[in-house]
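Exercise 7 asks you to align residues with tokens for two separate proteins.
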Amino acid sequence: MRFSVISSRKIQQFTADLVSSVEAWDPFLRFIQLRAEESSVLFQFDVVICLKDIEGRHQQFYSHSSVLITRSKYFAERLSNPSPSNSISVHCSEVNFDHHVNLLRLFYLPTELILDALDSVKSVVGILQSAVNFKCDEIVYCCIQYLEAVPWEDKEEEHILRAVSKLGPVAMPIIARIQPVDLAATKTVFISAIRVATSIVGPCPPFGNELKTSAQEQVEYMLGEDEDTLLVKADDEVRSVARLGLLHICSTFENELSSLLLEPDLASETADEKIMHSLSDLEWMCSILGKMDLMKDFVSNWAESSNIVLGVIEDKKLDSFMWGLKIKLIEVTAKVLEAVGYGSVILPAPIRLTLLKSWLPYIRKMKPLLDAKSSEDTSFPYKMNEDLCQTIEGAIVTLVLALPSNDQADILADWMRAEQVRYPDLSEAFEVWCFRTKSAKRRLVEVLDGAGNATLTL
């Protein structure tokens, strides 16, 4: 192989250009400058690396064959074959051109300084891919070390996975960060998150409500549909903790609600924020239990506590206050009525009747009050919007029609005795009840006669 020795003037110019173009590479610059000062013989380069891309961009790197052989198995193979030229051409794309440049510069850093010279995920992923292509084992290892230790963004993670997917065992530190955890670990984290989200573990200073809110968001996210979620939410221990959380939240809400009657200033923001935060937790629990097939537990608790809740909210002391609380209670009740009315939750007829008789009069009273407040003040924010009204009305109609005939008659008679028969509109239920009443005796007689019964007393 024929080598050419580069003059000292070219060496000095190369060093100056290098310093001006890569100022961020402090360890590299210190190393180059130190060696340049110590000996000009060190910079008697014997190989030129020519980088070229398809856009015509090119750059030359004056290098040492000894460094290339030590750092790269690819260059070691190229230099092992005699060649009349001391030039090696490397073709690359426009995208990875800069990564090739950065890789070649790393060749001249001591191994212990390579890791410190890496400065961003995007750059290191590119260098890693180039290092893999050129079989630079030490630099690949340093890139893996860097990527394993620094935080990633979602888009960066995708690039990292593509870069390390074929590296085998050397990439395990990175793979370990993103591989799915086993079911037992998922279950443990999920249970802990539920405990924090429902305040079973008590307050968590100095984080306070921020940690609880974060836990609630993550529990909801973790309940997304996938195979592991189905197994976790079906686990008896997980369901038990969820039920415990429900009891704790319901108890807290009832206590906070009852304390309103002792509040000296119901118009204060503190009183309103406190009870609304507690009710927000209850609404969140309703959503979570629905995803865990535990909605029946929520509905049962709501039915049991309805008398207590209504006893407080209908107290005269609250007549002109807590409108946000009142509308939010109606929204939660709508979810309960919908679950029961459309068969998502199966409850005995007496409980369904109690639930309906408890909340129907309150909803019927609040609708015109809220409408009147909205008419008086267009900025009044607490309204029963059309979707909410339709949801409640549809659920109540189906609930009424699923009750025993006599109970239907009681509810419909009470509805028609009201001064203003407006909302909810139960005329559909009334029409069905009338039709059934007229035909019920005839149909029942026919059925029993067909079964051989000669007499029937109604």
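Second protein for Exercise 7:
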Amino acid sequence: MKIVKANAGMLTNFEVLNFLQSRGAGKDPTRVIAPIAPSEFKVYDYLEQSAACNQSREKINEFVVKSKKYNLTKGEILSIINTRPSSVVEIDPIIEECDRRIGDSVEELLEVVAQVLPPPPSQTESDEGVVEGEDGTTEMDGEDGTKEMEAS
């Protein structure tokens, strides 16, 4: 194999996950057969728990197009795609001089992130099956399908 262009650019977590899956990381539950280093399996496990596992090329491209009007750098766009911030506190350290460059449009950018980029699996699983009662108790579906009550 010949390297055509070394270090051609930065990769999103989705692209790294896609590459590891193409090498067989997700197909080998024993982690013995696939020609992947143990450190690559750790990266794969991490990315499977991040927002990257629910992303697609179409969604990433859609976000890149919609974020053009905010004049973000490539690194800032990459960081937003990889971390999927959901609040001003999370996005402020990503964008250099956020208040001066974006100002009040931060909330609008966060709405674009929420609409276009899918949430991580832990966030979608924790939102399902939670019902709050009138008396302040929270009812959640347990792992075994039973109802659990929690007082708040």
